[in-house]
Each structure stands twice: as C-alpha cells, then as structure tokens.
User: Which sequence fits this backbone?
C-alpha cells in the first residue's frame, strides 16, 4: 500500500494470507561508530515464495520488456532462488532484456556461495550492475586495478553485458558491450541524511535514463543514476520520495543545484 500510494503499479504483486513482511532495523551511526542494519527475514513472504507464485499474465506480450533481479533474492531461500530462476526463464522466452544487480550481502551468504549462485544470472544479463567492493570480494578483482581496468575485468566475466560498476563516493563507471572505452560518471555532490537506499535510487535512475535514448543509453543512464542517488541522499528513510523532474533538473545542471526553499 505504501508503494501504491506513491504511484507504483502493484497489480501483479502476489499476496499471501499466511506469511509476513520481512523487517529491518536501522541503527544510524557516525564515525567512529558505523551504521548497523539488523534483518528479520525468516519466514517472510519473500523467503517462502515459489515459482507457482509468479503471475502468468505478467509475462504476456505487451506487459513488460525487462526483468531486473538482485542477488539478495537468490540468497534468501531455496524457494526464492527457484522463483528467480523461473522468472529468468520466462523473461528470456518472452524476449525481455535482463538486468542483474549482484548486491552482495555478507549476512546472507559467503562470497563463494554468491559467485556460484549468481553465475546463471550474470551469464544471462544484458546489463550487469555491481559495486566495486562486490567485484573484489566475489570475483577476486585486484584492489590495485584502476577503475578502467576493473570494469574491463568484469567484462571478461560477462562479455555479453553492459557493465555498470559503482565506485562509492567517487562515482560510477560503465563499459558497453563490445566497446573499448569505459564511460566514467563522477558522483554529484550531495549532503543529507539519506545514505540508505542510495544504491536502489541509482539503479532506478540508471534504468530510466538507459531507456530514454538508445544512441547514448549507457552514458545517459549513468548520469541519471548519479543524479537520482544524489537527490536520494537528501531524503531520510529508504524510499526515494522525489519526482522525475527533480532528477532531470540535476541532470541538466553542470554539477549540482543549490538547496534553498522553492515557493
């Protein structure tokens, strides 16, 4: 209902009368004490889903054209992983674009298990997203490699995909399938309380930009993603409550926008 209240189409959500929502508890910290997140996911509806829960009408012609999956789903349970595999098969059969975010969580599985579990999705992805730290942990990316070589390292693992590697506060780098020259997008300056959810906001902005202009889709996606993440950083909580126009205003600016009060 929260998502629907913000205009998200929830018509294909599979509801359960027997299971519960997973929870997480956030304890915000400041240096030298870091922020801590405690997850309560056991027996959640997400962890107990099965391939039978996939809504068949969603895969009908004209309903969608892209499936986005995350490594978190694969790690939640065997049933969740099986459901993701089934969704991948149906989406590929329907001719959809496949995007995959490794999104490693050490509290869910080991780097070795993550590499094995993610392998079919990495191999199937048309777009592969991951933070550099995940590449170092899971794929043994050498820490000393410069960003340009780091993204080429991942392209060797997924040569069929456009690679998008986030670099923390530095920015993000992308390498299109078949291209030789990476594209670097610096992070846009942002201050505020909303660091949680920045990665998801980046992904949303990236995909919106990627779909906007086929000729420059990777560069456009990186710019829009950086802008969406910067706007999210100004908003507390996990939900990026902002508009497309706010993101595009930052995209159109040379660097950043001043805060102030708009009346």
Assistant:
């Amino acid at each position: 209902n929260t998502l629907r209240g913000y205009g998200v189409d929830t018509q294909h959500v599979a509801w359960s009368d027997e299971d519960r929502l997973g929870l997480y508890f956030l304890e915000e910290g400041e240096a030298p004490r870091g922020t801590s997140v405690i997850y309560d996911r056991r027996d959640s509806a997400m962890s107990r889903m099965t391939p039978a829960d996939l809504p068949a009408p969603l895969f009908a012609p004209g309903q969608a054209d892209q499936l986005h999956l995350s490594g978190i789903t694969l790690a939640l349970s065997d049933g969740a992983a099986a459901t993701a595999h089934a969704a991948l098969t149906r989406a590929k059969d329907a001719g959809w674009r496949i995007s995959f975010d490794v999104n490693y969580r050490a509290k869910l599985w080991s780097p070795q298990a993550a590499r094995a579990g993610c392998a079919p999705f990495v191999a199937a992805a048309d777009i592969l997203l991951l933070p550099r730290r995940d590449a170092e942990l899971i794929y043994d990316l050498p820490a000393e490699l410069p960003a340009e070589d780091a993204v080429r390292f991942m392209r060797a693992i997924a040569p069929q995909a456009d690679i998008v590697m986030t670099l923390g506060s530095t920015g993000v780098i992308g390498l299109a399938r078949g291209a030789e020259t990476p594209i670097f997008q610096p992070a846009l300056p942002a201050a505020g309380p909303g660091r949680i959810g920045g990665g998801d906001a980046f992904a949303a902005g990236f995909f919106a930009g990627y779909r906007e202009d086929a000729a420059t889709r990777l560069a456009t996606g990186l710019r829009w993603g950086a802008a969406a993440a910067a706007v999210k950083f100004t908003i507390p909580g996990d939900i990026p409550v902002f508009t497309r126009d706010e993101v595009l205003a930052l995209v159109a600016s040379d660097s950043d926008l001043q805060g102030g009060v708009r009346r």
Remarks:
- Residues 194 and 237 are 6 Å apart (CA to CA).
- The first strand starts at residue 23 and ends at 27.
- The chain is about 35% helix and 15% strand.
- The mean pLDDT is 92.
